[in-house]
Amino acid sequence: MKKTSKIILTGAVCVVGLAIAYRAVNQAPDKSLPANEQLTEILNDGGCVFCHTENPDLPFYATFPVAKQLIASHVEEGYKVFDIAPMMKAVAAGEPVNEVDLAKVEKCVQDGSMPLMSYYLAHWGSSLTSAKTDIVLDWVKQHRTQFYPNELAAAEFKNEPIRPIPDSVAVDAAKVQLGKELYHDTRLSGDGTISCASCHAIETAGVDNHQFSDGIGGQQGGINAPTSYNAVFNFVQFWDGRAATLAEQAAGPPLNPVEMGCKSFDEIAARLSADADFSKRFLASYPEGLNEKTITDAIAEYEKTLLTPNSPFDRYLKGDKEALTAEQIEGYAIFKDYKCATCHAGVNMGGLSYEMMGQRANYFQNREINEKSGLTDSDNGRWAQTKVERDRYRFKTPTLRNVALTWPYYHDGSVTTLEKAIEMMAEYQVGRKMSETEIAKVKTFLDAQTGQYQGKTLTNTNKQ
Questions:
Q1: Measured distance CA(122)–CA(231) in Å, rounded
Q2: Mean pLDDT confidence for 125-132
Q3: Is the pLDDT reported for residue 240 higher than 50?
Q4: How confident is the model at residue 13 (pLDDT cuts 50, 70, 90)?
């Protein structure tokens, strides 16, 4: 046999051998296994836990000279963007997985962007076959159906990462009225000049449209005031998540020396108790009397009613095909293509996870260069509460509901237009440059997020 023929034959044998080996390590899970076990097997075989957990148990070849640096960078970047440990724990326990985690896994599988090519060349079993892809996508769909039933959406949109806002949530009407009065009551501040509504006005989309809000004595805060509309759907409150509930959030500003400046809730309760009519009505709903717990509970009960359902986009999801323009529908497709609907998922299009500001480019370094201003305590994000280094610059994702009315944008209120905010999100969070045409279409889609409050389309009396 000629030398050339031998080489060709040897090459063919190698290719066949590699193909056989590839198939051997990339078999889909046994379909007789429970769905959660099939998913877990795929995620483990795919090496997801190697790059998306804090202290991964890396494969032996991770110490090899060439692989060491490559895998180390994968782990650093992967864990920064997505910690898969909470999802794996929830799946093992048969509990609901965070909607953002669902959307992230779904998008990666749909795009085929994970695992990275450079990773699965070294770890063959990590690559996703079409059979594995189908299993994962079907699992996501079934999980949403079980734990996040999209009852308001039309059949074709039930598996969307975003769900329509419900018309209402259960509340106590008497407590709502008390909370409404307290929300607008300046007696909750030390000098009687500031109320909750001062920074979160109902007539200005639940914000004040200032970069930083004005507090007692003309002092100014250091972080942008988020909207109070639809806040009930956030998984935590404040940018750094320091309040677990609406009531806990309501307890913060009154005692903040920069915001409302009271010494204690005893001081607030004493002032309110002097109002005989209010005190009488309050005791009817809260026999235990005026105190921090009851005052903040009433405010929270009122804030549960600050819902803005029936936006054009919500109506579209419910089956009204005329609710969106063709350009807005294209904008939604672009929104999903750029992975915006992964972090901005769920009923509130956000508010369900902490995400790093600047995943693909250094936002804070560039801001400092461009604005010649240094970092502030408010820029630390979740780190301020946990002191865990991974949480530095990580913030609760803001809602995109009514976003056209809630300028300026970002935790630092540094961006004044929605178009610029969209452009920068693509750059800093996704690592892609969005064209002007794409930006315009996404902007029109976000304009369609303005909902209705008490049956009327939400407006903002401030002018941008």
A1: 45
A2: 77
A3: yes
A4: very low
Torsion, CA 352, CA 354, CA 356, CA 359, rounded to 10: -40
Crossing angle for the helix pair 35-45 and 130-147, to the nearest 10 degrees: 130
Nearest 5°: CA angle at 302, between 202 and 398?
A: 60
Closest to 228 (Cα-Cα) out of 259, 193, 198, 189: 198
DSSP 349: T
pLDDT at res. 116: 60
Mind listing the pLDDT tens digit for each residue in 256-271? 999 999 999 999 999 9
340: Cβ–Cβ under 8 A, 6 or more apart, which residues?
425, 430, 442
Q: How far is CA 261 from CA 187, 222, 291, 385, 391, in A?
A: 11, 15, 17, 22, 29
Q: Is residue 436 annotated as part of the catalytic site, yes or no?
A: no
Question: CA 451: distance to chain centroid?
Answer: 19
Contacts of 302 (CB under 8 A, 6+ apart): 175, 176, 177, 178, 179, 180, 182, 183
Q: How far apart are CA 47 and CA 65, in angstroms?
A: 20
Which helix (DSSP H) or strand (DSSP E) does residue 354 occupy? strand 354-356
Candidates 99, 106, 160, 259; catalytic one = 259
Going by C-beta distance under 8 Å and a sequence separation of 6 or more, which residues neighbour residue 419? 439, 440, 443
Using the 8-state DSSP alphabet, how is residue 454 labeled? T
Number of helical (H) and strand (E) elements in the chain, helices listed first: 21, 4
Per-residue pLDDT at 321 exceeds 50: yes
In one letter, which amino acid is 301?
Answer: E
190-238 per-position pLDDT tens digit = 999 999 999 999 999 999 999 999 999 999 999 999 999 999 999 999 9
Q: Which two tokens stand for residue 377?
A: 């305590």
Contact 211, 414 (CB under 8 A): yes
d(CA 18, CA 412): 53
Side chain identity at 172, as an amino acid letter?
A: D
Give the separation between CA 128 and CA 132, rounded to whole angstroms. 6
Closest to 224 (Cα-Cα) out of 72, 4, 407, 15: 407
From 292, 302, 313, 332, select the one nearest 206 (Cα to Cα). Answer: 302
CA atoms within 13 A on the CB side of 99: 27
Strand partners, 220: 214
pLDDT digits (tens, 9 = 90+) for 331-382: 999 999 999 999 999 999 999 999 999 999 999 988 877 776 678 999 999 9
Residues shown for the chain: 464
Cis amide leading into 408 (omega within 30): yes
pLDDT band at 21 (very low <50, low <70, confident <90, very high): very low
